[in-house]
Amino acid sequence: MIKAILIFNNHGKPRLSKFYEHYSEDTEQQIIRETFHLVSKRDENVCNFLEGGMLIGGSENKLIYRHYATLYFVFCVDSSESELGILDLIQVFVETLDKCFENVCELDLIFHVDKVHNILAEMVMGGMVLETNMNEIITQVDAQNKMEKSEFFPFFSLYRHLSFSLPGRTGRHSPQEFGWYCRCTCSCCICRKEHEPSRNAQKHQHRRHQHKSAKLTLLQIAA
Amino acid sequence: MALKIVKGSIDRMFDKNLQDLVRGIRNHKEDEAKYISTCIDEIKQELKQDNIAVKSNAVCKLTYLQMLGYDVSWAAFNIVEVMSSSKFTYKRIGYLAASQCFHESTDVIMLTTNQIRKDLSSPNQYDTGVALTGLSCFVTPDLARDLANDIMTLMSHTKPYIRKKAVLIMYKVFLKYPESLRPAFPRMKEKLEDPDPGVQSAAVNVICELARRNPKNYLSLAPLFFKLMTSSTNNWVLIKIIKLFGALTPLEPRLGKKLIEPLTNLIHSTSAMSLLYECVNTVIAVLISLSSGMPNHSASIQLCVQKLRILIEDSDQNLKYLGLLAMSKILKTHPKSVQSHKDLILQCLDDKDESIRLRALDLLYGMVSKKNLMEIVKKLMLHVDKAEGTTYRDELLTKIIDICSQSNYQYITNFEWYISILVELTRLEGTRHGHLIASQMLDVAIRVKAIRAFAVAQMATLLDNAHLLTGNTQHSGICEVLYAAAWICGEFSEHLEDPMATLEAMLRPKVATLPGHIQAVYVQNAAKLFSTVLCGQEGAPADSKVAQETSQLLIDRLPVFVQSDNLEVQERASCILQLVKYIQKLQQKDVEVAEEVTALFAGELNPVAPKAQKKVPVPEGLDLDAWINEPPSGSESEDEGRKTKGKAVFAKEESRHTKPRYTEVDEKELAKRREVRKAEQANNPFYIKASPSSQKVYQEAVGVEHIPVVQIDLSVPLKVPGMPMSDQYVKLEEERREKNKTDRKKKDKKKRREKGRQRRGDSGPESEEDITPAHMVDIVTEEMPENALPSDDDDKDPNDPHKALNIDLDKPLADSEKKLPVRTHRPDEVLKSPIEDAEGLEVTSEPKKKSRKEKKDKESKKDKEKKKKKHKQEEGEDLMEAGSEEPVQSKVTNDVAAQPPASTPEEAAAVTDAPPASTPDAASGVAAVVPDSEPEETKSSKHKKKKQKREKDKKKKHHHHHHHSDGAREESVQNGTVEDEEPLPPMSNYALLAENSYIKMMKQDADEVCDIQGNLHDGSQVVVSVIFENKCDSFIKSMEFNVMDSLNSKLQRPEGAGPHDSLTVPFHLPPGISNEARFIFSVQSIVMPQKLKGTLTFIVKTEDSSTHEKLDFKLHFTCTSYLITTPCYSDAYAKLLESGDLKGSSLKLEGINQPFHHLLARICFHHHFSVVERIDSCASMYSRSIQGHHVCLLVKTADQTVSIDAKCDEPGLLRNVLDEIKLTFSQC
Questions:
Q1: How many CA atoms lie within 13 A of B600 on its CB side?
Q2: Nearest-CA neighbor of B1081 among B1008, B1038, B1025?
Q3: Residue B1050: which H helix or E strand, with range?
Q4: Partner of B1015 for a Cys bridge, out of A160, A176, B255, B1021, CB 3.0 to 4.6 A?
């Protein structure tokens, strides 16, 4: 059984936490902190297994982790899981994220934690491994996303990284102007017209990728 | 245009979406908490809106905040709302949130049952998938029970995507609802051979998980798994299977033999390291299990060790780690094969990776021998010096000690060496293990007599240099060694070269900064040293000056300790100070005191086994957990409390009187036991026979005195030196020591060490006694005489959920078990799938009569929960069922599942007590229903039972209020004489064909069950749910239901209908089908029970003809049916009682011999009460009528008598309710 799956960055900020047993919120945070503490002080080229996270259960459990660029992926498992198998699983998970987010980087996980959860749900269910075949996972995730989009409007999918903004709303981008905005960290306005952000959007898509390549993607670093 | 609408809604729904929230948090790094609290306020606003899009957006944000550690349980209800959205997008958000923050004690989970069931049966596979995923995270025992059938059905879904999820989630269901394991297991087994590899892997996963905890129940699957192992190519599955075999082989060595070959092949052929590793692991497990049985497996071991060596030599740290891990398993049984790789392992000690070094250390433990111990420890000592982190260094330290002390110092050839190692270890700064070193020092010094002189010299040096230890490591544990040093120097002071110098070192003012318990030892041992000095000095006459100087030294230095704030130190210091002052006086008079002073510390102290005390059997008749006095009752007021104090004294005395009586009763038994034990002791060569005198005492011991006698056997440390017994011990000991000096050293050191350590902890060295090793062994074993239980063997956690899954799966399913003992809600088309129904037929609702009681408890518990839920359910149900076409009908119970195939006469009899109502007239056996019994004995009894079951089940499931007084509510009507008379043995048909059996089970006539429920919305309405079941082979249609209205109760008919018109039942019944309809009655007064006469008319259509049939019944509205289980908190309850608006009445029931909780469960179950509070044999209960009357009960029980004091604001109602309660109990 997998007891918990944690993703946090080099500073210990949680990016995803999935506990397959119930803990109170405080305990969860404590577990994340402790795990980070254990994992972060290890060198890069040591083994990926750690015994005894005190909080997630007793001596039976192991922490198995991988470090990609800025993120740690930590699985807490019990003795019924194969250590090397779980390492492979983490790799599959990250590669799947990479496919789904097109060159995944930490920002994707920061802003789309719900999507990460959905992908994870296709791999691990209730602490047991559901699927290890990446193509199958991606097929299912895509099918669900498509369904989600079709419930709204057909073109929404094209511009999923954009959001539309009206002036004067709180919490919007600083320019506070009417138009389509990129939903990623840059705050550039793509188009002031409410229909047809298309061309600019495509351009922007391009730029978005530049953004990302500036940050090293997880897999590139790992390789 | 469309875009505009869309835009508007987007605009609203993305007031601030998840991304905005994340961005906001990132922009408010300095006041994050504040920002988030404003966000939470916004979210609360959003949750109040009706728009589901806005709500789900809010829930999505909450999920993120939950990850950051914010408690979002307050929004649980909103999460349920979002889950019940019909849009997949929102549903997914809702389920995600639920999976992140719901858990067993989330009460709104109760509301989700129907929604989840709906989603599970959704035509969209992703709806189902999302529900399964969510459910896997928050399934509760209730959900598991209610949904087990639905999930089982999904295991045979056409889509593999659903199948695999359903298979996986079954594991969680089993954990929460162990009763489902046996019925579901055959299907689970089928899934092992599912055409889809994903499903197959899921099934393997689940079964492995189950088998890991209770392997013996799964041995029979071994051939199947063996086949899978040789055929599967999926590494993930292979790994699981191989791991499973690892768990199974210890139970079945023959399996191991078969496995070796294919596993070896796999080891040779596979390229996947993970698979290779697991194979090696399992081969090791096999070899371990075979280690005695099969001679020629050295080749396999060699193969494993060789492969592991490759892993360990690999540059990949992970493989290295795992290699070492597996190696340590081999080590246990085949240490020799591992020892040849010592070089490799020592090399790993130098690895930069701490995990690997620790693993290597573990291995070292098993690799030492007399020859290489010193060498290895030397190497470790080097590492100790080099080690950076204190954790690793501490680990090294403990390992060194472990390695050296293992098997009672088996490998140590030179103890002087070991002592110096220990002394060296004290130089470690900041170690936490000072006490460990200290206990080793003590242990060795006490047990290895030959080493004492050396040890004492070393300790004296240590004491002299104590400042080195305490200087900078004041707070660390290392100063613990001073404790040992001081004690050893004091106790064995005869070996000291210069006791005076040591005494001086022990009385340095700096000592006062040490922890209290160490100071205490210092003070005490200073006194011992003092006596040694006196001895030494006085022996040489004329040198009394030195002796007097020593006294003076003590008198000067001890006052520091007298002022200590540690009580122990203070007390000892002042005692000794006074003693020394007195001695000084004597010295000044030139009196020889040395001898007398030495007498103070004469005699040797014996160590006692650490568990010896625990092993003292509790004498028969002594219950340590029993209260000697009555426990103070919690409800007693303070005054009473004070009074009981007085009583307590009295009570105590009384119990003292009773005690001897107790033992007298047992005396014969005791004598017998004593004989047995003595015989045992006589036969045991290790046992020291008690001296005649002590034996005498022992035999004379009677009654209470018997208890301490056992202790005497123990030779507990309380022994006073100088008494004959101890002398004898010492003598015997001496002899023995002479004899087995060498043996002893090896055998018992370890034990003694532990003993020593433990004692030191609490009682200090004074109580230390030295017992010969052989004797010690005796004490450990012998002091667990006749009735000592091997208590520590049972290390199983009683709370382990897997314990409940220890179920024999090989036993063929009894008919009663073939279906999950669950009644499910069933959509009105009645048949979900032929398969399910077929299965349904084969099954009964309650597999074992035995378990019924337990179940009832559960039920009542559940009832209570349900009650809680009730208010919410009002809304919730609307929400949750909004989508289901006909909510009413979807509530039909699955009576198929509820039918027991065979009924026992008693049961039947119990049910059929209602008066026979109708005449056998109906022709084609359609039938209606209920409470009154049918004339035909057999049929009717079966029938009834079914009904009752159904009724019960229903009660569990819906929280309707059902009446229970047997037939009262149900009406049986009779009909279908013709069919009735046809002697169709149900079992035979049932065995023939699924299809057939279905029909068979349905019986030939229809019946009807009804269920009356108060309507919460309207104080004057009662809902009656009636199930119609067609039991004949013909089609039944045009059913019309009519009831003769009374003044008080009226059937609600559609507008425009006359008061005598009948209501058309809105469905037809094909053969073998059942369905439910609900009828609403308006009630004026609920004070009195009601009986309404009614008629059901219907047309039975056969191929060639159709006949009109009629069925009469009586509807019985009891007063309890007007009650609604309503939870009530005890404070509100108390207020209610205080208010004085309620009028009382009471009831006494005699001869009730069921347990109190059953009684309560019955009242709750049958009469819709909830327990407010229960204290011992007294409980307060509450219920409420549909018109808002409060009904409070105080139930007390004593000796088969139950008294119920009741209060209610409507005395008439109360009287009737009490009558009904009485009736319930008179029937049982």
A1: 23
A2: B1025
A3: strand B1049-1051
A4: B1021
Element (H, E) at A85: helix A83-101
Three-point CA angle B344, B349, B351, nearest 5°: 95
Residue pair B283/B276 in contact (Cβ under 8 Å)? The answer is: no
CA distance B1090 to A17: 58
For residue B415, the Cα-to-chain-centroid distance in whole angstroms is 47
Of residues B11, B206, B243, nearest to A82 (C-beta): B243
- Mark yes or no for CB contact B136/A126 under 8 Å: yes
Q: Are B161 and A140 within 8 A, CB to CB?
A: yes
B1177: its two tokens: 């044999």
Within chain B, which residues score under 50 in pLDDT? 13-14, 473, 636-665, 687-734, 736-737, 740-796, 822-859, 862, 864-1017
The 10s digit of each residue's pLDDT in B641-656 is 444 443 433 333 333 3
Angle at B1030 between CA B844 and CA B980, to 5 degrees: 85
pLDDT score recorded for residue B787: 43
Of B22, B130, B161, which has the smallest distance from its Cβ to A111's Cβ?
Answer: B22
Mean pLDDT of all residues in A12-26: 90
Classify the phi-psi angles of B1200: left when phi > 0, otherwise alpha if psi is within -120 to 50, otherwise beta.
left
Question: With the CA atoms of B475, B477, B479 and B483 taken in that order, what torsion angle do they form, in degrees rounded to the nearest 10?
Answer: 130
| Contact criterion met (CB < 8 Å) for B274 and A20 | no
B116 touches B85 (CB < 8 A) = no
CB B286 within 8 A of CB B222: no
SS3 of chain A: helix, strand, coil, percent, to 5: 45, 20, 35
Structure confidence at residue A122 as a pLDDT band (50, 70, 90): very high
C-beta of residue B836 within 8 angstroms of C-beta of residue B902: no
Closest CA to B1025 of B1128, B1190, B893, B858: B893
pLDDT at site B692: 41
Q: Tens of pLDDT along B1146-1166?
A: 878 777 777 777 778 777 777
**Nearest in space to B49 (alpha carbons), one of B19, B9, B87, B88:** B9
How far is B72 from B1212, CA to CA, in rounded Å?
47
Tell me if A171 and B20 make a contact (CB, 8 A cut-off): yes
* Burial category of B1085 from C-beta neighbours within 10 Å (exposed 0-12, middle 13-18, buried 19 and up): middle
Tokens 């009226």 correspond to: B1050
Segments in B784-885 forming alpha helices (H): 834-841, 852-881
Question: Across the interface, do A83 and B274 touch by the CB < 8 Å criterion?
Answer: yes
Q: Which amino acid is at B600?
A: L
Q: What is the pTM of this model?
A: 0.54
Closest CA to A151 of B1045, B88, B1198, B412: B88
Which among A84, A136, A140 is the nearest to B318, CB-wise? A84
Calculate the average pLDDT of chain B.
69
Answer yes or no: do B274 and A84 touch at CB < 8 A: yes
Token readout for B1163 is 């009242």
Q: How far is B1176 from A159, CA to CA, in rounded Å?
A: 66
Helix (H) or strand (E) holding B755: helix B724-762
Tokens of B641: 């409390």
How far is B1082 from chain A, CA to nearest CA, in Å?
45
Nearest Cβ partner for A166 among B11, B26, B212: B11
CA–CA–CA angle B540, B543, B549 (5° rounding): 125
**Full DSSP string of B38-71:** HHHHHHHHHHHSS-HHHHHHHHHHHHHHHHTT--
Residue indicated by tokens 């995944």: A104
Residue numbers in B near A160 (CB within 8 A): none
Look at residue B1147 and give its three-state secondary structure.
strand
Cα–Cα distances in Å, from B1214 out to B418, B568, B843, B1039, B1218? 84, 68, 41, 38, 6
